[in-house]
Amino acid sequence: MASDRAKPCELDQEKYDADDNVKIICLGDSAVGKSKLMERFLMDGFRPQQLSTYALTLYKHTAMVDGKTILVDFWDTAGQERFQSMHASYYYKAHACIMVFDVQRKVTYKNLSTWYTELREFRPEIPCILVANKIDADIKMTQKSFSFARKFSLPLYFVSAADGTNVVKLFNDAIRLAVSYKHNSRDFMDEVLQELEVGQAEMLGGLKKTASLQRDVERKPVGGTCSLCLRPWKCQSHAGQIQGQASPTALSTEL
């Protein structure tokens, strides 16, 4: 998968309407290694640090998926994860999520349920990849089974930002899932946003037309029904879309 060196960019949510753009977000507790994983994949070098991310960073990346050039926006947190919550705009029109925990800190694994609940509140159906980071510190963790991944049918990756284990595969698969989701999206919120945009356009057009009419023209009320009907949604499993990814249930010790 070809790529250019990524670099921080200013936020521009208007670009997410383009067919060749996808947005991928990272979630997880502070200091689990989200930023370091991005640096390992996107940058030439890797600088191990123990500092949290204090500013939202948007990295631009160019990838090739099925022979087509895709522009990828990777979103890294603004330190909000320290408060166990992210601003709603962080989730806005995201096409995939990478959720990270630290195999050395059990509390980061326990907090996954909080992050996952919030993710599904804003993005009910986007693909989500579960990531067990820092396996270089304890390789035996790869022999454990994590029930959270099995419970929600999430693909599980054992990775290391320090030595690069599985990092490239993780991000390449995330990009492919994001592209697949965008082209086959049935997300309820996407439908709502689309309906609102159409409704606003029609309203503005109607106002312009009304302004051009004579003031003494009789106007009769118009009745009708909304074409958008509320419907329940279900979390879809995207694990089967990734080729060569072992099921987390095949591992031995359960957490």
Q: How would you describe the overall organization of this protein?
A:
One of its GO terms (cellular component) is cilium. Keywords: GTP-binding, Lipoprotein, Nucleotide-binding, Prenylation. It is a lipid-anchor. By secondary structure, the protein is α/β, with parallel strands linked by helices. The chain has a domain at 8-185: P-loop containing nucleotide triphosphate hydrolases (Rossmann fold). The protein is 29% helix and 18% strand. The protein has helices at 34-42, 88-91, 106-110, 112-122, 147-151, 167-183, 188-211; strands spanning 8-9, 21-27, 57-65, 68-76, 96-102, 128-133, 144-145, 156-158, 253-254. A hairpin with a 2-residue loop joins strand 3 and strand 4. The protein is globular and about 65 Å long. Mean pLDDT is 74; it is low at 1-5, 7-13, 48-54, 213-236 and 246-253.
Give the structure's gist in a few sentences.
One of its GO terms (cellular component) is cilium. With 255 residues, the chain is α/β, with parallel strands linked by helices.
Give the assembly state of these chains.
Answer: single chain
CATH level 1 class label of one domain? Alpha Beta
Query: What is the CATH architecture term of one domain?
Result: 3-Layer(aba) Sandwich
Question: Shape from CA axes?
Answer: globular
- Taking strands numbered 1, 2, ... along the chain, how are they ordered across the largest sheet? 1-3-4-2-5-6-8
Order of helices and strands: EEHEEHEHHEEHEHHE
Largest sheet: 7 strands, mixed
From the helix content, strand content and strand pairing, which structural class follows? alpha/beta
Q: Quote the average pLDDT.
A: 74
- Give the termini separation: 34 Å
**CATH topology heading of one domain:** Rossmann fold
Round the Cα radius of gyration to an integer and report it.
21 Å
Q: Give a count of the beta strands, DSSP E runs of length 2 or more.
A: 9
Fraction of residues in helices? 25-40%
